[in-house]
## 1
Amino acid sequence: MQQKYYYLVNLQYLGFRYHGWQKQPDVKTVELMLNKTLNYILEGKRFKCIAAGRTDAMVSVNQTYIELFLYDEPLQLDGFLELFNYNLPQDIRVLDISETSKDFNIIQHAKLKTYHYYFCYAQKMHPFSAPFMLNIRDNLDLDLMISGAHLFSQMTDFYSFTFRPNNSTKFKGEITSCSIEKNKVLQANFFPEQSYVLKVKGKGFKRQQIRLMMGALIDLGQHKITLDYFKQLIDGKNRIKLSHVAPASGLVLHKVELV
């Protein structure tokens, strides 16, 4: 029986020039670039990578995990991190790599995920900010958006914030915290003088859920919907479908916690 070796890889990447995580035909993805790099530095030895979760096109990740399986021989961990990073593209970085066991499963292991969505409004931002935040040209009722964001922690049925739900989709979930704050996390000298961040922490997010949540908050801040209607969205049993998906470039998977 062939020996199998297991490793947990902690990494981050800027998603602006990638078509998401998952390998796809004819487009550049993060998984594709990781696999190409591993194939080179492992000199063709057999391996497989599984991510803790997938990201959409242009979504960035500050910290997440992948599980790496090797089939021929174990890694020589001394110096491997440096070799890996030396050969990866500049917008992907491995933070740490450690050995794990066959009992660990990156998909089934309980995880808490924290997402950040960065935005500014009213004034046109510097073009260099575009990979990191959404620029909303209109004024926003920020206080109303802050009130709406806090309501998300009451949501247990994610129907209205699930992209293209169908009869087999499971809508139950848990958001442990949600808030809008002044951005003191991500900083650059070309960022607008004031920017903001939606912070969402929870388990088991659906595809494009954070972007649908942000879209609803923008509609609330622009008075396109009322707070009473927003509360109906939070109560998933109303089965209201949403179409405003906020752009991907403001979204960052900030942190994945294995619990």
## 2
Amino acid sequence: MNRKIAAVAAIATVLVASACSSSSSSDSKSGEVLSKDGKGKKITVWLMDDAQKQWPEVVEAAKAQFKSETGADVDIQWQTWANYTTKVDTALLSDNAPDAIEIGNTQAAKYIDAESFVDLTSVKGKFDNSDKWLDSLAASGKSADGSKTYAVPYYAGARVMIYRKDLFEKAGVTTPPTTLTELKAALDKVKADNAGTANFSALYLPGKNWYTAVSFGAGSYGVDGVIGKSSGGKWTSTLTDPKFVEGVNTWNELQKAYSVGGTTVDETDQDARMAQGNIAAIVGNGWEVGSVIDPKNGNPDLKDKLATIALPGAAAGDPTPAFLGGSDLAVPEKAKNAALGATFLQIFTNTAQQTALAKHAIPNAKNLVDAFKAADPANEAAGNAAQGKTWFIPNSPMWSGTNETELKNALSAIAAGGDPAAELKKVEATVVGTLNG
């Protein structure tokens, strides 16, 4: 673990040194953060191939508007997530960094701390809907103290409860549950009605699916403070906060009562498991419906039998907070056309482009999510989750796989019978120590 922390710290140190020693891009020398002086120029933008496959028309519309307003062309270089972090690390150290890039929102803190991105704080208000950005995406693009903005929200995905309508209705549950009390009553009926099915889970909650377990513990916090909170540059743990432990205990009670055989695994194969027919509900990203019914690895016969709802919370209209994953967009500090890159991001995330993107994914602002929900009735649950209370990992540049592993191990031990408070206490020092480097 110490070697891993040292390695991450070394990367951050190198990036900081590079940023501080580099000569800034030509247009940032003039103090411009946004520029429309692009005649005869071409900027380079790195985007994930999700956009190429799902919303290429949005990208083309943004390119056309950018060309019209600046005179500059755009070279979109399509990327994949495999080994992407290593590629970004290398690019940000070079003198040939792209002018704008997409990053996962869990990756942003490392680069922001290293001062590898252009500070967009002074022009944040010139980005459409910036006062209504989704909480978790907006938080991921800020400095650790929340005072500055370095990355712009792009799009999001939210976790929901995916369930078998046919099994719930057969058990007499015809109205989707809206509270935890209603959920437990519904699951009791589904469990009893399928008592003869081997290894049946009314709600499959694998022990190492830390995203779901932590969601129950996140209900007492806003977007900040889940797992840890920062004050004066120092992180302290919330893992043993009685409110957090109470939430994890709720998850533990659900998994003990309704989940079978998943205490030592995570959610990686839950879609395939659900396709086999002995799981009535899972908690996952909305797009996992497609994975469950995939003709190749799933069960297409379930196509009309699945539905989604926001994971119920203590009260109706107040669902359990969803972890909001997604992507941000940023301008590398060493970009040659940084101000033009920022202008492209301004256009690419404007209301028109984001409304068009909403046909395919959750857009970056709460006021635009209704367009996502209107695009397909199946989007309503994920849209509601995104518009509600969400949570995000501690915005520390030192967050790493170590933290996830520690949490997974603690939750697996809890699922296997361990005391929630005691098991969380065991990993608390390691998690906080990692956050503080």
## 3
Amino acid sequence: MLLEQQAVLLLVGILAGIACTVVNIASLISYPALLSMGLPPVVANATNTVSLVFTGFGATLGSRPELEGQRSRVIRFGAINAIGGAVGAVTLIVTSPDVFQFMVPILVAGASVLLLLQPRINRMAAGPVSSDCDAGDHFSLLSMSGMFAVSVYTGYFGAAGGILAVALLGVVIDEPLVRINAIKNATNILANSTASVIFIIAGSVHYGAALPLAAGFLLGGGIGPLLARKISRGLLRSLAGISGLLFAAKLGVEGYG
């Protein structure tokens, strides 16, 4: 990969890392960038997932105040994410690349719609403040199964997985949205990490692209929480959502035409 392309991926990673912590849309920025540089869909997805691990580390470091007192939740939900991420990655590896290529326009379009609907999803997810870490948590087989399904999706593709995770965590946890989002950032590390191990073993990662993108994700994920109160989330969400729909349409025309 050319040095100029790596520089672009570094900048893309910074932007996507910031966007991930603000409106949970990293993959809608980084995945198209990888495709535009000629990476096959499965390789682009695997490379993106490996790089996303570093967004989680950056975002978690930047969200330490919101994570205070939530260790037990991070461990509990992290375990579900770790297993689900591995299952999703294995599913991607063992199925035909043609299946993933067929699904990508649908997944990108769905992720873009979820992004545009995120304010409504956030209102549904936000719960009352709880004074005790586990007081008011509402665990059920259905909610845990839902979180597992989201983590499988994250391991398989991942775009908008953060939005779904925030919505489900909001059903289970009685906490302000900012603390719920911090838990999502911390636990998504494990979903992406286990998926990354699978992709690395399978030889599906383009390291020349992954390294600069990961560096950008780490930087963007770290400064994202600091900029969250200053960035116009509505504008960023609208631009990314509309761009995602246009990109999905382009992929659909190329793949289904």
